[in-house]
Specification:
Number of helices of chain A: 3
Strand order of the largest sheet of chain A: 2-4-5-7-6
Largest interface: A-B, 36 and 46 residues
Order of helices and strands of chain A: HEHEEEEEEH
Distance between the termini of chain B: 67 Å
Structural class of chain B: alpha+beta
Number of strands of chain B: 11
Distance between the termini of chain A: 101 Å
Helix content of chain A: 40-55%
Largest sheet of chain B: 6 strands, antiparallel
Structural class of chain A: alpha+beta
Radius of gyration of chain A: 26 Å
Strand content of chain A: 25-35%
Order of helices and strands of chain B: HHHHHHHHHHHHEHHHHHEEEEEEEEEEHH
Oligomer: heterodimer
Chain lengths: 171, 677
Amino acid sequence: MHPLRKQRLQLVILIVVAAALVIGLVVYMLRENGNFFYTPAQIISGEAPQNTFLRAGGMVVDGSVLRSDDSLWVQFKITDGVESLTIEHTGILPDLFAEGEAAIASGKVDENLVLQATQILAKHDEKYTPPEVADAMNAAYKAKQEEKEEKEEKEEKEEKEEKEEQSGSYK
Amino acid sequence: MIAEYGHLALIIALCLSIVQAIVPMVGSFAGYRTWMRLGHSLAIGQLVFVAISFACLTAAFLQDDFSLQYVANNSNTLLPTQFKVSAVWGAHEGSLLLWALILAVWSAAVALFSSHLPLVLSSRVLSILGAISVGFGLFILLTSNPFARILPFSPTEGGDLNPLLQDFGLIVHPPMLYMGYVGFSVAFAFAVAALIGGQFDSAWARWARPWINSAWVFLTIGITLGSWWAYYELGWGGWWFWDPVENASLMPWLVGTALVHSISVTEKRGAFRSWTLLLAILAFSLSLLGTFLVRSGVLTSVHAFANDPERGVFILAFLGLVVGSSLLLFALRGPVVQRQKGDTEVVSYSGLSREMMLLLNNVLLVSAMAMILIGTLYPLIADVLDLGKISVGPPYFNFFFVPMTLGLMVAMGFAVFSRWKKTDANMLLQKGMVPFLISLSAALILPLFLAESISWATYSITAVITLGASFWVVTMSLEDLWQKLDRGSSKQSSRLKNLTKLPSSYWGMQVAHIGIAVCALGVGLSSVYDVQKDVRMVPGDRVEVAGYEFTFDSLDFVQGPNFGASRAQISAYKNDRLVAVLHPEKRKYEARNQVMTEAALDAGLTRDLYVSLGEPLKGDAWAIRLHVKPFVRCIWLGGLMIGLGGLLSVMDKRYRRRRKPSTQTAPQPAATEAAAQ
């Protein structure tokens, strides 16, 4: 083989091997370090894994913020409109953290379904809601509406059935 | 009326850019010299009109014209004047206008400083820059007009600028960063013009190189300033978050760094031709991708303010058009460029040579960019494919970026000594001996003294590796410098003479490489020895952090121009001696009713004391964050040194030489080349 070609071939093989190795590593690292986002409802229903680093977001429930008197421990609840999730954190809350506003907490869910957060993020512009939270709230709202409709339908059905039964019994 | 003039000027600028995109290009094919020359005057005309438009928007801010939607959203009568000016680029519409202005500045600069270039080349470059201006002009006018009015019910008071942006950082960081981003459009235009013309040789590289280097300098300084700003303004003492928008600026920088190195091979040896062109296209594409990520609102980010999907679609389409058409052109014309007619010999180099070293540099830099690109886009792709909402955290980025940087630093030490074509491995090992021993001993010994106490528990491997790599780069660079001075005779006077003879591009390389070492030192040591305590304090309390005693002396209320603030006084003592008195603030901006932390810091080369107020607790108590950050300054000092290095190499004499009468393209005897012999 021409020495130049040989040199190029070696280079190509090297690149291919390195690329394969790197792609494998990337996929592995993305799996290891990708933090999934869950809504409070998903966590309460047990859909989210416990003791795994994850993120959860929603609106901070009015009047739910509890502070310790002698440390930086704080507890509050966030909601997606369906369920509310308790979050505990020791540290300083961000400037724009407030009741009734969106917040995202990252940390691990313990066995009592409380999120032990290592970091709390709040929005950084008063017009801005994190897209994840907005989506979760919308989804929850839709689910609620559907549930309501289903319930109403069910109730109507039941009422009908009851009436039928009643009318039946009269017969 | 001023706003309408501004709007009109912008429309005129767009019209000029359309002509600029078409006429010189057609002229270059038809051979009409007057058509080709038109590009130069059009570029300057365009600059004039974009500047008028920009001045009009600035005037609207200074006059508090709240009938303009953009001004009403981002200014306030109480906003201090310097921030009214910087608020012009504080949000989406205005920042795009700044983009357009800077693009016009670069185009006009090309028009003014290209008299030594062949007219065909310069007219094509200007035409491509014109086409990019058309894209941005349309984008601004169709989706993001900063001159849109709110009529008839315009507000009497503005919504104020986001408090985070009311800072010196906003005044300098975005213009610098944009100068870098947009500057790569010149590199891109040069590359595309080379592909169209099929002429791509050492002369081309020598013409394009100062433009590429200057864009890279601005980007380097822009990123450094951004990191510094985040550090003191966001209030929690971090300086890099692997946030998508930061990544968006780092990716073009990495590719730009690769380009700065690969074009040197193209200039000196005529190799890496297609690769250099591809990097130039890639650097600008990544700048556009960055704009898309920031402006479309697809990613959750510190920088993602309220956005509009329509804009995202426009930029994505523009990005697709630019990347798609340039890569197509590259595929069609690349082979033509690779084999020039005048080439008599195949450029060859052996396994160990300066070319190989620079290839290694490019492979590492581009791989690092690819890792970051994957990590940044993965959440988007996962979301589209319905794999769940994922965010990729810093561990992913650090896992790839840190080893790659270390690899780069090791190679950097050897690369300084390597020669074109072929380098003797023994020579490299021999030169590396003394620096290796110095670095090894520094790396092993210094961590003992950097920690609070001399013990194995606080002995940090990260510190050892950081110190080793940084000392390696610095000592190798210094050894190379010493040898260059020693050449000829060893007399003191001739050393001094040699010192002044070294070309500024050599100094540029040295300063930039040492800058990398300084920056790495800051990153490594500040992450190892950083001590942070979040504590609850009442006035009179005393807390010890890493050898410093912090006392919470008092708390006052102060009134600023457009905010009220709780202001604490915290004194820091070391060995009972007062070191610093710090005044962190918790501000409440009235117009937006937004609370903001203003950290206080005592800066020093070897350590920063960083204090910020968290939140008021019950009674007099406050949550307070106390940081001691050793060597954190080195990060930005290193960044500035890298920028300075780039600047020195732009100033090298050989780029100022006018076109020679003959068309010979023999490379100039460069410092590094001559020195290696």
